[in-house]
Design goal:
321 residues; alpha/beta; Spore Coat Polysaccharide Biosynthesis Protein SpsA, Chain A; 8-stranded mixed β-sheet
Length: 321
């Protein structure tokens, strides 16, 4: 009924929790866990094989002879999936609710118009051990027009109706981008509704890489922009989707302008792109928008409470898989 995709690279210390969260699912239907090791140089593959010996009817383990990278490894994993539904759980995340799949499949079996379900997750920030909940204020039922404006789906929470998208023949342009999650969310959302469960059912691990430099932030924003530019072409026949993607692109460009700092070349390149958006056709409009973003600060109450909440969250143990 469900294929769970788990890609892994050098994650011997954490993959056990990820696997445990899957094999402990309580369902009245069969599931399969497809693990694809991307030529790890540690004992990730050995750990996966040990779990496979314990759950041979559930776990399938594959290993690439050479490292393919995240995007290509996902595509390799999709080739091995046979389920009616498709779930995702990378080796450094894990599920904490034993009826996660039963809950999502139950809803989708009774709502054939639904293409995607997803749920709230606990964000775990490894840098300081603090935690937060995702999707504050999230609408329960949305569609592709909402998703075009912002990506609010955490990958480990998603369940797709598998056959709506041919994952073996993704658009050629997807190969230009290192990450696939938002692209796949959008391709599936083109075929139906999106439903949200407010119960936290997984832990999303955010690595302790430290604060990004402006240059790194600019680069990452540029990657997000490039995906949306290709999605605009992909959905050119759906003006309501294009409008949302254009709004998101404009917002990304404004943040890129801030991240560009004093780099005149990046400043000019970013402004040139903004000039093509009617709302930002001149420098005066662009500067006003940047000033609004730069001046935006959370309310005083939230500025005080946020450090307190972070401190308290560090004292609360993470749920186990």
């Amino acid at each position: 009924m469900v294929s769970v995709v788990m890609i892994a690279y050098n994650q011997e210390a954490v993959i056990g929790n990820a696997i445990k969260g899957v094999v402990r699912q309580k369902t009245d239907f069969p599931i399969e866990l497809v693990i694809v090791n991307d030529a790890s140089t540690d004992e990730t593959l050995a750990v996966a094989r040990q779990w496979q010996q314990l759950y041979p009817d559930i776990i399938k383990v594959f290993s690439n002879p050479t490292n393919l990278g995240i995007q290509a490894n996902y595509i390799e994993a999709f080739r091995h999936c046979t389920g009616k539904y498709l779930a995702m759980c990378d080796a450094d995340d894990y599920w904490i609710y034993s009826r996660k799949l039963a809950t999502q499949v139950g809803y989708m079996e009774h709502h054939p118009e639904c293409a995607i379900t997803f749920h709230r997750v606990i964000n775990h920030y490894e840098a300081d051990g603090s935690k937060s909940l995702s999707n504050g204020g999230q609408a329960v039922d949305t569609d592709i027009t909402h998703l075009s404006r912002a990506n609010y789906i955490t990958n480990l929470s998603v369940l797709y109706r598998h056959d709506l998208v041919n994952l073996s023949k993704l658009p050629e342009w997807t190969m230009r981008h290192p990450l696939l999650d938002y692209t796949i969310h959008m391709l599936y959302a083109a075929h139906g509704k999106i439903h949200y469960f407010s119960h936290p059912m997984g832990v999303y691990r955010i690595g302790a890489s430290g604060t990004w430099s402006n240059a790194e932030r600019y680069r990452r924003l540029g990657m997000s922009l490039a995906v949306r530019e290709d999605l605009i072409s992909e959905f050119s026949d759906r003006p309501e989707v294009v409008e949302g993607l254009q709004q998101a692109s404009a917002n990304i460009l404004l943040h890129m302008l801030i991240a560009a700092g004093d780099d005149t070349r990046l400043q000019q390149e970013t402004r040139e792109k903004l000039y093509h958006i009617p709302t930002y056709a001149d420098d005066k409009a662009i500067d006003a928008a940047v000033a609004r973003i730069s001046a935006t600060r959370p309310p005083m109450k939230k500025r005080i409470l946020t450090p307190v909440r972070a401190l308290i969250s560090r004292l609360i143990p993470l749920p186990k898989p």
